Amino acid sequence: MTRVIGIGSPFGADQLAWLAIDHLAGKGLTECELIKLDRPGSRLLQQLQGAHRVILLDAVALDEAPGSATHLSPESLEQVMCVTSSHGFGVAQALSLAAQLGELPSVLHLIGLHAGTDLTHLPPLNTASLELVVLPLL
How many domains does the chain have? Predict the structure, then answer.
């Protein structure tokens, strides 16, 4: 089973991954587990444990079409700013720690949800873009 994890918070553009999880839940998907996490930091490792396939969604501060989704490589994750990473121990750091501990899932997909440049405002989620990127991975 695939575990889809939305990293976010109740503030501004950081809600994008939670909106994405809500949208996917409305699609009636039965082959995946959908989880919302509030700025988990190192607690993300707990959600990775025991999972073979993980799709991780997080808002990223990129000046691209706000609300759209992009498949990121682990290397590029360190080069983009995840919205939650400004609050402390971010996704890139958690994944690096998981790798060092041998706790990464066999299959890991990182999906960035473009927050735009104004992180205080929630852009509309581009559901077509989300589905185009995420559904083939399930």
Answer: 1
